[in-house]
Amino acid sequence: MQWRWLVLWLEMAVAALLGDADVEALGRATHSLIYFFSDSCQYCRQFDPTWHYLTEVIPSSPQLQLVEVDGPHNPKLAQLFSVSGWPTLKLLNYETKRITHIASRDLGALVALVAAETGVDADFSRYRSPVHKVAAPVDVTAPSANDSYLVVTAPWCDGWQNYHYPTHFIQTAAQSKHVLVADITEYWDILPQLNLSKWPVAFHFRDGKVQGFAPPDAVYLQQFLDNNVDLPWHSSIDDVELMADAGTGYGIHVDHGSVQSDDDDAAYDAAVTSIAL
User: Which residues form the signal peptide (predicted)?
Assistant: First the structure.
């Protein structure tokens, strides 16, 4: 068993999949963050991306290991941690045998909790962001600008505080699109270069033309990134009139909301918080 666990540790170096026969493996680290899941659980599928990215930015170590347990197929472990529903997160301190039930599914909150309880900080440099950050003048006429998106924003805008987190929608969009983000706190000169006085704003460059959008919230920005916003194309960025989708009735402002359904959020939170230790 020790050899099997060593192989898991060296080869995976992220989250090990444990079963009922692997209880002693919980003693390989001072703390264990345990994700109980079920393959048939829709809320598990909803949380999976957050968990996956968490395993990327928090490396396994003698102080902390991240493990996964298929709850329905490992009833002994589920019973040991008083788990009767999924998804469920438990934090075990092996030395004190203290078990903490974690109700949050927000990446930032999980990172903060893990740091506070274990002393292990997330290392976001381990995550290779697909977003291209703008740190120099942008040549919007260059061939590389073809079929690409440029978003100009600031981290204090609602919805953009943690845009560097892997679970942020702009990171997800950049997995299938060429997306550039200009953070004005890091590159203020983008504003006079593009003659901007408001943000966030977004541009789409394709076939030598450009369209611009001042999204009223994250939902409409997502639609813009998905080419679902009908806006005119221009031959020059100087001709772009930044506006929100005419059908929304919104003007230009900086509020951003969640791209996730509020109903789904409420149902998920109710399901998670109802699981008792």
Answer: 1-21
